[in-house]
Each structure stands twice: as C-alpha cells, then as structure tokens.
Design brief:
7-stranded mixed sheet, binds iron/sulfur cluster
Length: about 375
C-alpha cells in the first residue's frame, strides 16, 4: 500500500469536512447523536490531537476516507483511494458512564465526555426557540436526544455535581462545558447556569465554561463569575445578518449589536481571551465576512472559535453541505495568524470549547 502522510491540520480539515467511514464504529468512546451544538461525531486522536469527526452524517457514509480495523495497540490506518494518509486512535469509553445517580439516572444522561478530557452537559434540554420550526435554529437537534431518551430535560445542580466529581476522579476530566437551551427571553439561561456551576464547584475543583445567549442585563456576568464560572461562551454561529435571520429566525431576534455590547461587558469580568464565540463556517458567510467579524471579536478580547458546519441527521439542514477543506484552510490559516498577533490562543483559555478545540483544526493551525 502507498503512503502519503498528510500534515496534521490538513488531515483534520479533510476528515471534519468529509467525515470518515469506520471499519468498526463501536471502537473507542461512544459517538454522539442529536443534542445541542455539534453532533453525529466521534472523538478520534490524530498525532496527539483529539478532534471530533463526523461519522453519522449522510456525507460521511460517502466519505473518500476510511479507517481500517484497529491493530493490537488500538490505532487504525486512514486511507484514501488505497493510499495511507495517516493514523488515528480512539479515546476510551469513560468509566463514569457505568455509574448512575442516587435517584437512578445513568450518569451518561446527565453529562458526556467530549474529546478526551471535557465533561459536557446541556443543563436544560428544552429551548423557547425549538418549540416552533419557524423559530428554531435550522441546524439544531436539541430535542432529538431528549425524544430518544438519551438524556433528561433538566439536570439538577445535585446531579451535575455528582457526575462532575466522578468524571474528575475516575477519568481525569480537566474542564467542563455547560450549555443550555434558552428558557426565557430575560436571563436566557444565565440563572440556571449559575446554580449549576455553584453546585459543581462546591463538589470538585473543575474549570467551567458556561454558554448562553446574551442575558437581558450585563449584571449577570458578575453573578456568573461569582458562582464559579471561569469562561463564557456566547455563540453568534453566523456573522451575516441575513444568514442569521434565515438559519436562526428565533435567535436572530437578538441582534449582533447586542452580542457585541455583551462581549464588551463580559471581557472585563472574565478576562482577555476568556470569552469566546462559536462560529459555524459553511452556513453561507463568505471568507471575508468571517475574517472581518473575527478581527472585530479579537479586538474586543473575544476568542472566535470557527468550526466547520456539520449537518445533523433529522434537522432541516441535514442535506446542507459541509465547507470544503480548502475553504476552512483559507479561513483558519489567516485567523490563526490574527490570533497569534493578538497574543490570544486556545491554550490560554481556562475552560470551554476554545480550550478543547476538538470541533475545529484551528488550534492545530495555531501550533503549526
Ligand atoms: S469544542 Fe466544544 S463542542 Fe466541540 S468537542 Fe470540544 S467541548 Fe465539545
């Protein structure tokens, strides 16, 4: 068999765009289906970097990349058209998945492992924007895992604290991501994130990122910080107003101007580079629009975490294409230079998606 190994960041871009056909989809930690945010992924490790790669999407079933069966040390060859392009391995299933709470809920319905060392939970699995298909974000599957019984609607502070402690003790989890569906048009989830973080911090010393829409009052940022939240994510997802209105008709009612004002209020509270936003490349924003927005965000001290859009089965956007590896390269390479010039990086974030970095090749570009 011929071998032409691809550079790490290129292989990550290729696999995140095309997905991969696995010889054995049960190897490693369980894959993720449905839920809030990115999904239909599996964690794989490429040259020491753990990233999320689509394996359940329609595109991934047609991917030119396939992994061979794992060898004795658990790693698999990745090939394209008979040419070996790299090797991947798989983080183990976490031990905390075998446990259940005192009230009989499996820990995996409370929180899950993302990448190799991140504990992730959706505190409220319901959202005011998901109740109507005219308002819901077209890419979101927050209700799917709930309908399938893979999670529960509201994780209590006590349940989150119990699972977080076990995940640290048994699996060495290093930080936690708490996201939430939006419960109302006032605090937009900040209150439930505060009570959840307070309980987790009382149980275990674990850096926490909370993620929500900008609350109605900037005073929530001080409260969030005081409750133990270390970093904050407020996710704009798309940067062009017309695209936001088309793809996120409910969420776009909070305009970009409000996000910018909220970023300016939150950065002094959480610190330079400790507030981030998730941007999905591939929804229709041009390369120039993405980079212009990233430049504005970096100038405000916000880490722009740009990830390739991955369509989730069962959502209105399930057939929307992923961005090409070339498009991602043309965004992530200059973005990594902009971050470097500003002294901001994935590595300096205390917690959260920017620190984890598994949904994008961005942190690999930063290191390249
Ligand atoms: S970047 Fe965020 S959403 Fe992606 S795997 Fe890491 S913690 Fe999860």
């Amino acid at each position: 068999m011929t071998t032409t190994l691809l550079p790490t960041e290129q292989l990550i871009n290729e696999l995140q765009s095309f997905g991969v056909r696995l010889a054995d989809s049960k190897v490693g930690a369980a894959s993720r289906r449905g839920g809030a945010g990115p999904s239909d992924h599996k964690a794989v490790t490429i040259n020491g970097r753990t990233v999320m790669v689509p394996i359940h999407t329609a595109a991934s079933f047609e991917s030119p990349y396939r992994s061979l069966a794992p060898d004795a040390d658990g790693s698999s060859i990745i090939e394209r058209d008979g040419v070996t392009v790299g090797r991947i391995s798989f983080p183990n299933q976490p031990r905390f998945y075998a446990l259940q709470t005192f009230d009989g809920i499996p820990y995996s319905k409370i929180a899950v492992l993302h990448s190799k060392d991140v504990l992730a939970t959706t505190v409220l699995q319901t959202c005011i924007r998901y109740q109507s298909r005219t308002k819901t974000c077209q890419f979101c599957a927050i209700g799917q895992s709930l309908a399938a019984g893979r999670t529960i609607a509201h994780k209590s502070p006590e349940q989150l604290a119990e699972v977080a402690r076990a995940a640290v003790l048994l699996d060495g989890v290093k930080h936690m991501v708490m996201t939430t569906g939006t419960p109302n048009a006032t605090d937009r989830g900040a209150a439930v994130l505060c009570e959840s973080a307070f309980a987790v911090k009382a149980a275990v010393d674990l850096p926490i990122q909370a993620q929500c829409e900008p609350p109605d009052s900037d005073r929530w940022f001080e409260r969030m910080k005081a409750s133990g939240i270390d970093t904050l994510g407020m996710h704009i997802e798309a940067v062009t107003p017309a695209i936001r209105e088309r793809i996120m008709p409910g969420k776009a009612s909070v305009p970009l101007e409000r996000y910018m004002a909220a970023f300016e209020a939150a950065v002094p509270v959480f610190g330079w580079g400790q507030v981030s936003t998730y941007i999905l490349a591939g929804l229709g924003d041009t390369r120039e629009a993405l980079l212009e927005m990233c430049s504005q965000l970096i100038a405000r001290g916000v880490y722009p975490f740009v990830v390739p859009f991955v369509p989730i089965s069962g959502t209105p956007m399930e057939d929307h294409p992923t961005p090409s590896p070339l498009f991602m390269h043309e965004v992530l390479y200059p973005l990594s230079r902009m971050l470097k010039a500003a002294g901001m990086s994935s590595g300096t974030a205390k917690a959260g998606c920017g620190k984890c970095g598994a949904c994008s090749a961005l942190s690999s570009y930063e290191k390249a």
